[in-house]
Amino acid sequence: MKFAEILLVLLLLCGCKEAREAKQLMKQHQADAIPMKGMLSYMADAATLLDCRTNEQLIVKFKGDWLEVERAYTELGKPGAPVYVEFRGRIETDTTDGNTRTGVVIEEITAMRPDTACLTRM
Question: What is the DSSP letter of 117?
Fold first, then answer.
């Protein structure tokens, strides 16, 4: 069971209004997710994704299915090495302290292949 699912179950058990709102927000985020693919790199609590479609480097936010992604990446035993991933995700922009940061949230990982790379555009 994923961390987000465990948290949701705990919130639902308390019967709180916040639990219902959290469940609704989680469903909305999953509905907003689109198929994406890229080269994921992770080292020292920093994750980036080179989007295969746009060739844009994005920060990976530690939300959604991140704990599952981190576990699978770490099991490969190649810290910092780029790994091809396919997933359902969404782009998210946050503004904190006047700074705007855009990143990707991986809602559901569908494939992780260390022997594959993004196809280059001709």
Answer: -
Residue 105's domain spans which residues? 34-113
The counts of H helices and E strands in the chain are: 3, 5
Same domain assignment for residues 47 and 97: yes
Q: What is the pLDDT along the chain (122 residues), one digit of tens a residue?
A: 555 566 556 556 666 666 555 555 555 555 579 999 999 999 988 999 999 999 999 999 999 999 999 999 999 998 999 999 999 999 998 888 888 888 999 999 999 999 999 975 43
pTM value is: 0.71
Q: Determine the Cα angle at 77 with ends 74 and 80, to 5°.
A: 75
Q: Specify whether 39 is located in the same domain as 95.
A: yes
**How many domains, the chain?**
2
